[in-house]
Hints:
The protein is mainly β. The radius of gyration is 22 Å and the shape is globular.
Amino acid sequence: GNVLAPLVRLDAIPPVVHNGSVTFDASASTDLNCPTSALEVSFDFTGAASGPPPWTPWCFTKTASHGFPKGVYEARVAVRNPEGLVGYAQRRVLDVANSDLCLVDTASDVDDGGKCPGNSGTDGKLSLREAIASSNDKGGKAIGFSGPMTLDPASPFVITADVEILAPEGVVLRGAQFEVAAGTAVLSGLELTGAAALVVVREGAQLELVDCHLHDGPLVRAEGAATLRRVRMERCGATCVEVGKDSARAELLFSRFFDSPLGVRLAACAGPAPLVVQSSVFAGLQQAIVAEVDCSGPIQVRHATFDDNGTGIQFRGGAGHVLRNSVFTRHAVLAAECGGVTFQEREGHLLFGNANDGCLAGDPATLAADPLFLDPAARDYRTLSASPARDSAAALPSVDVNGPAPGLFDGPAPDRGAEEAW
């Protein structure tokens, strides 16, 4: 059978604490060739270990608890199968001062004067709306949830001060709209769904989406700076991510965009590097990335996988763009359209099964071969061991394609495309 590293899932319960412990759970991890019970795990609770696992001793028990000093941590787990192959996952956790901790313990959207900490309002509960209002008043709050819950907010949440909103698995917001009007907002672990769902970051503000799942309608609109890390967006109503102002910037890292009309739309792009894409997958889209305007700042795409789209990338204008080490397969119309743009770097693609390779045909260090995806119909773009994408890309300075795994890449060289085989 196919031998791949385990597909690792990690939850942190709760992800926000004050002098408490966080329970990490990797029991949803799976492997192609063995039951989950046969997998061993090792934890790096602080995310600071410099070497490879084991960090804690290998153990078949998939859960572990850990207490933290105050701070922000990117906890990791390594999961090893009987063949000795190791997969990895990561989750953001915080330990904060009691005065900075807001714990949402109701799915109600009411605001009856509840404040955090210490005042739960008339109903004795703290809603997400009340928690965000408290954060806006004081700034620097960390908002957690008492457990899984489904919220149906009636009006937008407006964020005007620095905040971290971290959820365990099972916190669902239906039709929620977030407006990051000022400050830096981190949203982690949330599931957003519904045609009205919208996350907009205004000019001068910053948004970081981490480990979020947005599906069946949502749009992320960047007018300021937006970073998506390990985010999955699928069945977006029209566009998944829109860069909407000249000052805007979007960075898409280790993220997935599936089964939508348009993945990323650049409606404006005058600033430096308005779009940076790395280690991300675009599949089942009518158009994956479209620059509708002349981008004076360079669009940078490295180690991306484009599969089964109508069109992969359409560049409209600009100079100094970067397109490196990416995979383009099964495009019904065109892999890439370069127009009259110029590139600082454009090489190292893998092209296969496209109706037209477009401007990428004949680029340096390009392969024409089946990348041997594990299961593209199920949107699983891990590659089999015989894949020509494996270990065949040029190593790019300081580009970490390994995510939570140690080192910048695994093996003698990076893999082409979004999925680095561990």
